[in-house]
Fold:
Amino acid sequence: FRSDDRRCACDAPRTAHARTARRRRCTARAAGRRPFSTMAESAWIAVPKKSTWKVDFSKPLEKFVRATYGQQVLDEHRVAFADLQQLRENVRTTRDTGEAARAELAKYERVLASVMMRFPIAEDNVRVSFSWANAFGRGRPASQFSVFFERANVRFNLGAALSALGCAQSAHVDAGVKLAANYFAQAAGVFDAVKRDIDAHPQPLDDLKGEVLGALVALQLAQAQECYYLKAAMGGMKAAILAKLAQGAADLYDAAVAAVDGPALKPLVPGHLAVLCRLKQLMYRAIAMWQQGRDEGARKKFGAQLGLYRAACAAADDIDARKLARRAPAPVLTLLEQHRGDFRRDAAAAQKDNDLIYNDP
Structure:
């Protein structure tokens, strides 16, 4: 519950009820300090994890099994209940953002699917209450006597963990962008699965609304497509293919902007998220035009080539005119400046060649 070395106010002596209420408020505020992570070393955006509170699985389940099946059956399942309790605690308290955290979340999600079929957890039956905060630090936490609610939140965190794993990869090596693309695509699949379930069974938290989950799907798909372009560029693929991949990234980032800037998500997330998505949309649109220009040059269409190079330069300049690069992470700015140099160099060379040799309108 601490984000730095300072003592949290929730640690001050007070009654148990007041401590619990205070701790929940502190946790909700802490979750809102960095709603999305755009780490200085990452070219991508990680979705934040949701916070939850300790749950006592063992006693309600033991009570149900004893009353329904008898003491002998209960004794046979005590270890399983203790393992379930420990698994949830591991998921709740871990600070790990690596593959081990993803594996724990995936394991717990599978166990919950079994629990959902075996135990009638409800307010009027097996009373196990699950409490979760909004991932974006806005609004009040919600509690339900529902394994479906618990599973939806756990799957959200699984998507967030996959997103974080993607962001942890290097954008400068082939293996890094390949892994990142895989993680982002998996994250999109998880958020989409949660969205389909939520569409059928609406939940009280804002981050579990269909529009919000759809925006997260759009963002992860855009980042996966960006990785496909980067990997293809590192592999030296033809300019025509690179142009299509870059335009695909631009189109998906455009969809991400529309979703992130929509009425459902806009009040929940910082404004710079939409700005960064717009920057990447314009950047990959410029890259697509530049790559298309290279393809036109290879086919001896020098006038079209020059026009596309000029359009790429104008699109890059539009990023500056809109002041979109002010809060972008360093790797994005580095990539932008590298391509801006490519655009200008190739435009100048094409202009010179066209003036002296081709005179192609």
